[in-house]
């Protein structure tokens, strides 16, 4: 069992009421559409993670639950805060004419998964652990490539970096719960394969729809940006492949990925954050 993590619940001190520019990410249509697509999945996705972790925690023995109690409270608090602020961000996207097609697909899958969870809570917990590893890899990539958001709308740069820092911070919680409940390697990796397929298919589909509605899907600059930020030597997919592959090792643990970029960012941006709770 890994050491329990200290998880602080923080309020992000930004005002999302004023309108946002359409191409808020460096004026780059692809990056804007990509980040927008991710945000569209978060309200439903984060709630699923909260429910899965809460259900897993309830299934623990009394002795084990004492060890996890504070960390689970911190995890739920952080994810609930992410869900809330991305819902506010997504409201701007709706006003810009974008459609959350991904959300409906998430709802249909989650309805089926809830039935599986009634049979064994480790299924949804394994899916959550896989998704949390995905987001932790993305978070690490974003925080180690600061130029990615360098000229972004300042509020949104802060939002995405804060979210990334906290995703890295709580990357072990669902995984450790899954292990504590006797979750096995076979199902853990099976759920990662399934998560990988559906996540990538959905994010690319939503990104393409965002670009189509924006009128920038078939511009050369869009595809050039997509290649640069996803497939080039410093791109997301190539930079995170080794970390993704590591998940399939029997002795894998999320703590092996450094959280130093997350800790550094949280320390350097403390003035933009208001702690509202913490786990011990």
Order of strands in the sheet with the most strands? 1-2
> Helical proportion?
55-70%
Structural class: mainly alpha
Q: How many whole angstroms does the radius of gyration measure? A: 18 Å
Characterise this structure.
The protein is mainly alpha-helical and 280 residues long. Helix content is 68%, strand content 4%. The protein has a two-stranded antiparallel ribbon with strand order 1-2. 41% of the residues are buried.
Quick gist of this model?
Helix content is 68%, strand content 4%. It is mainly α and 280 residues long.
Layout of SSEs?
Elements: E1 8-12, H1 29-58, H2 62-95, H3 101-119, H4 122-143, H5 154-169, H6 173-180, H7 185-214, H8 220-231, H9 236-246, H10 260-268, E2 273-278
Antiparallel strand pairs: 1-2
Descriptive tags:
4% strand; two-stranded antiparallel ribbon; 280 residues; mainly alpha
């Amino acid at each position: 069992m890994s050491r329990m993590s200290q998880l602080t619940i923080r309020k992000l001190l930004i005002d999302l009421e004023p309108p946002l520019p359409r191409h808020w990410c460096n004026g780059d249509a692809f990056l804007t559409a990509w980040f927008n697509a991710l945000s569209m999945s978060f309200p439903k996705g984060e709630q699923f993670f909260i429910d899965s972790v809460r259900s897993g925690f309830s299934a623990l023995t009394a002795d084990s639950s004492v060890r996890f109690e504070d960390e689970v409270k911190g995890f739920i608090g952080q994810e609930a805060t992410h869900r809330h602020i991305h819902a506010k961000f997504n409201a701007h996207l709706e006003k810009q004419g974008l459609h959350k097609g991904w959300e409906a697909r998430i709802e249909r899958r989650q309805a089926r998964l809830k039935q599986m969870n009634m049979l064994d809570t480790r299924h949804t917990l394994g899916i959550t652990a896989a998704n949390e590893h995905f987001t932790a890899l993305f978070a690490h990539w974003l925080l180690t490539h600061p130029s990615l958001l360098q000229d972004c709308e300042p509020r949104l740069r802060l939002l995405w970096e804060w979210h990334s820092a906290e995703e890295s911070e709580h990357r072990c919680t669902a995984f450790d719960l899954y292990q504590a409940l006797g979750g096995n390697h076979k199902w853990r990796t099976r759920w990662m394969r399934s998560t990988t397929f559906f996540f990538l298919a959905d994010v690319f589909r939503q990104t393409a729809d965002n670009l189509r509605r924006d009128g920038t899907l078939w511009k050369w600059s869009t595809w050039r940006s997509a290649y640069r930020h996803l497939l080039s030597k410093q791109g997301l997919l190539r930079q995170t492949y080794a970390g993704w592959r590591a998940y399939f090792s029997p002795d894998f643990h999320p703590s092996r990925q450094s959280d130093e970029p997350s800790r550094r960012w949280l320390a350097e941006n403390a003035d933009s954050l208001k702690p509202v709770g913490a786990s011990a």
